[in-house]
Amino acid sequence: AGKTTAMHHLRKHLEDKGFRVILVPELPTQLIHSGVMIMMKDFSLTDVIYFQCRLIEYQIATERYYMDIARMNKVKTVVICDRGVVDPRAYVTEDIYQSMLDLKGWTRCHLRDTHYDAVIFMETAACGAEDFYTL
After folding, report:
1. pLDDT at 84
2. Are 128 and 116 in contact (CB under 8 A)?
């Protein structure tokens, strides 16, 4: 059981408590399904920073859209994001991530704390068991 299973359990639990639950989809997967090929290994450093900053901006805009919809519902609603604005950190070095933050005038805490009431960080079961997981 992983992230998707956990999200569905959380959704069911919240719905059983009377909440409407809105799931914000994982944006990189949407990009891939739209035909966008994300091959950062072929990007220049400038392109990596630009791409990741744009991804965060897309995430922010998408989350705002879903939050606006939730407010319009006029019922108790919980919005769950499959991924969040701090996720791109997992795909770049600390130096590149800091360059992104500096470029946009963001901080990690600001991104996290101004967008979410709660954050759940999950670690893959593959950590430490790479021999059992292949692409």
Report:
1. 87
2. no
Sign of CA dihedral 55, 108, 97, 7: negative
Q: What is the 3-state secondary structure (H, E, C) of the chain?
A: CCHHHHHHHHHHHHHHCCCEEEEECCHHHHHHHCCCCCCHHHCCHHHHHHHHHHHHHHHHHHHHHHHHHHHHCCCCEEEEECCCCCHHHHHCCHHHHHHHHHHHCCCHHHHHHCCCCCCCCCCCCCCCCHHHCCC
Q: Report whether 79 contacts 22 (CB < 8 A).
A: yes
User: What is the C-alpha to C-alpha distance for residues 56 and 63, in angstroms, rounded to an integer?
Assistant: 10
CA 49, 53, 56, 62 dihedral sign is negative
Per-residue pLDDT reduced to its tens digit, 31-86:
888 888 777 788 899 999 999 999 999 999 999 999 999 999 889 999 999 888 88
What pLDDT is attached to residue 10? 93
Bigger pLDDT: 134 vs 123:
123
